[in-house]
Specification:
The structure is a single chain. The chain is an all-alpha fold. It has one domain. It is built from 10 helices and 2 strands; from the N terminus they run H-H-H-H-H-H-E-E-H-H-H-H. The protein has a two-stranded antiparallel sheet. A hairpin with a 3-residue loop joins strand 1 and strand 2. Helix 3 packs across helix 7. The chain is globular and about 55 Å long. The protein starts with a helix and ends in a 51-residue tail after the last helix.
Length: 280
């Protein structure tokens, strides 16, 4: 694919998103003043997801043995815990930082480089974290809800936080790898793993939500607010949980609820606690 072809594709994408966002919505949700634009981008992301990402993710779950899928998923989560621990420290949540870094050490050693999540099996639940949450803890308001092309659900604050996450990733995760072909391959595998882990959640949204856009938006904003507030164990009423079986009735750290997945590679929120992919 030459440079001119890529340019045309991106130009068509930008035009499609712009045209899709021209519609206005009467009486939008105060948290979502750009709902007309956001719904257009949501529709665009959904079409891309159904045409490209979801088929690849389904194929991945069919041809890859479940133990291999779980190992890949756990290893990505394990290296992400380094940046998660750093954010907990930046937020002044020392206990969370120690617990998260302890999880990383335990899973790296006893879990064979993170292939097995032995920390969770021993009661040390994962605490998803990112720089958008850190900005919220520092007192920066979330701003309007925003759906990003290809990425999915976000807010103005979380979009700014993506820049911090990108920098952090260059030091603590896949971005730290110097071998460019290997690094890019791992980024691609990360996208496929993330989408595969959310197949069940997105299928649930398609099946039960009368308005998938509003359903995903409300769940995303509720979970992000819970992560910023740092709800302690027992405050589960403030954490959305859309597991079909009701999930675990025990206490959960902030942000460990399952979030319905919107179209996009990041729509569930950075640091998602989605389970490993299940065979479709």
């Amino acid at each position: 694919m030459n440079k001119n072809t890529l340019t045309r594709i991106f130009a068509m994408t930008a035009a499609g998103v712009a045209l899709a966002g021209c519609a206005t919505v009467q009486n939008p949700d105060p948290r979502d003043p750009w709902e007309g634009f956001n719904r257009g981008v949501y529709t665009f992301n959904d079409k891309v997801d159904r045409a490209v990402l979801r088929p690849i993710a389904v194929g991945y779950t069919k041809i890859t043995p479940q133990p291999v899928q779980s190992c890949i998923h756990n290893m990505f989560n394990n290296v992400a815990d380094i940046w998660g621990a750093a954010n907990s420290m930046l937020q002044g949540r020392g206990v969370d930082a120690i617990n998260t870094f302890g999880r990383f050490l335990f899973n790296t050693t006893m879990g064979v480089a993170g292939c097995f999540d032995v920390a969770t099996a021993n009661g040390a639940k994962r605490i998803p974290n990112d720089f958008g949450t850190t900005l919220g803890v520092w007192g920066i308001g979330q701003g309007p809800y925003l759906v990003l092309p290809f990425w999915g659900s976000s807010t103005i604050r979380d979009t700014a936080g993506l820049a911090g996450d990108f920098v952090g990733n260059q030091w603590t995760s896949v971005g730290a790898i110097d071998n460019v072909p290997l690094r890019n391959s791992l980024y691609g595998l990360l996208v496929v793993d993330r989408r595969a882990s959310l197949l069940s959640a997105s299928d649930t949204v398609d099946r039960v939500a009368l308005d998938p856009y509003s359903f995903v938006r409300d769940a995303y904003l509720q979970r992000r607010a819970a992560m910023v507030l740092g709800n302690k164990a027992g405050d589960t009423n403030n954490l959305p949980n859309y597991d079909e079986d009701g999930g675990d009735n025990g206490a959960k750290p902030a942000g460990t609820g399952t979030v319905p997945a919107g179209p996009g590679i990041g729509g569930a929120g950075a640091g998602t606690s989605a389970p490993a992919p299940a065979r479709q």
